[in-house]
């Protein structure tokens, strides 16, 4: 896999009984605000669908348009707009309250319904007598609620807001183009699990977008201010961005505004390191989330050394997330999950 | 990845918006009862931990010793002994009834507890006021109940039956050695999620073991009879081997005794094709279950053509399982999951 033709590298591996049981290959890039490749593993110009990793970029218009202020959306709601949440009660309640600000309810959501990924939340919902989940449980309901809020604030009927030709979708797609700096058109479009479009972009461009989001460099004044506000919001409410036991939440709970971290489906993890002026993108070729988490953590330690590792405890924290003991159901250690990024 | 050095091949891929979004590499072998390599992708002599794919081999002693008959275990219980089940009520009730045959209950199980993988079962348990799962929900509880039954029938205290040095563990490990034909020793031992040992063996040997299990060739008379009985049991009760919505169950519901199929953790799928005299092993290098299912289905179609594909409907059934439409939460088609094994 180190062969030039392979265009990928080894990201992470799982061991058991002293042997490597599984291996994850993939690509990773570290890029500055000017788009310079600081480090890479695999072809930085190949394309990926960013999926949920651009939710914060999609939320910029909600803030920059003034809608968030007019609707008195708190930092918790802004964080939820950037979230892939676990469908816990606090997530669904907050999404519902966002919709209520514009006189709507969950019937306005076009994301579809699925069971909460946080299992106890699903059990709690069932224990209340429900036999099916609702749209508020969808991991993307905060992003969708934010788009419904933006649409209503702008006097636009939100019906069909997931359609690429809907006015709101055009505006948030323009946000993506400004931040990521590449065209978002029908040719590079796919559909996400929540029915919104997702656009294939180069790893390098996405990472540059993250560096810009982390610093404001290269963004309009309104978007630079909006990005700063969203970064403060997620740092203040990391639980709203993911939830109980989740990687994104754990990392941002520890590092606050020093690291913005976001997962995306199919094995993607991204980060912005504002003080370093860097953006990072990792994707496991196989779509495995665990590999992306392990590898991103190793890159956070290496490229965020100055801004993140203020103490031995900070380093130990990152080491624990980049090389985790695998315990079995009786708590016995059976192996390791570890980054092997070079 | 087709490079000789790579020692793996492309098994499956996920597409979105007409592009390949994720790729799964791995190894796969098709072997006859004599151990001859009929087909392979990757190094057939490299080692893998078979994990749950050898549960039926581990159940041979329960049948061959006469314990199953003395305890009046039905075919459903034998199927559950070979299962990685979803923790549905029928699974846990049957595991409990197996333990009751030897005057025990779930406190005899040493597998540990985890929430049912079949989410509605977890919700149902919570709706009954429980806040934690029990050992019966463990996906391996049927296998463990079978070992407790065997131990008690043989007049051996089952306490510590998961220990490699426990008499019952020695006997079932001897079963593995007979079927797979390679030593199972401390040097190649790891610990499984359910605390039982799992032994690293070559792909080719595991596949030969499956061919033997499917035909009885190369096994003692008692084990050949035991294998036939277990194959009839899982074919009669495929729901007990996995559960609602699961791949193993769907394949065996369709093909009955013509195909024995079993999943294992970390991306493994195996099959025995009794009428073809073949065993098949697939492992996704990254541990992804979806790739193993897609690739195994393609191999079932190719190498089980004679015994499985009696009609165009049989072929269409396998085609659906080897190239699945990916639908999003509103039922819209967003891409494909497909085997690309050559």
Describe this structure in words.
Two copies of one chain form a homodimer. Chain A is an alpha+beta fold and 342 residues long. Chain A has 15 helices and twelve strands. In chain A, the strands form three sheets. In chain A, strands 1, 2, 3, 8, 9, 10, 11 and 12 form an eight-stranded antiparallel sheet that branches. A two-stranded antiparallel sheet of chain A has the order 4-7. In chain A, strands 5-6 form a two-stranded antiparallel ribbon. In chain A, helix 4 packs across helix 7, helix 4 crosses helix 10 and helix 9 packs across helix 10. Chains A and B meet through strand 2, strand 4, helix 6 and strand 5 of A and strand 2, strand 4, helix 6 and strand 5 of B.
What would you say about this model in short?
The first copy, chain A, is of the alpha+beta class and 342 residues long. Chain A has helices at 55-58, 60-64, 67-70, 75-81, 89-101, 119-127, 141-153, 167-180, 203-215, 221-236, 238-241, 247-255, 289-303, 305-308, 312-322, and strands spanning 9-16, 19-32, 37-41, 47-48, 189-191, 197-199, 201-202, 260-264, 268-273, 278-284, 323-327, 333-339. The two termini of chain A are 13 Å apart.
Number-wise, the strands of chain A total 12
- The secondary-structure class of chain A comes to alpha+beta
Greatest contact between two chains:
A-B, 57 and 57 residues
Unreliable stretches of chain A? none
Shape of chain A: globular
Number of helices of chain A: 15
The helical percent of chain A reads: 40-55%
Largest sheet of chain A: 8 strands, antiparallel
Which series of helices and strands of chain A comes N to C? EEEEHHHHHHHHEEEHHHHEEEHHHEE
Rg value of chain A: 19 Å
Distance between the termini of chain A: 13 Å
Average of pLDDT of chain A: 96
Beta-strand residue percentage of chain A: 15-25%
Oligomeric state: homodimer
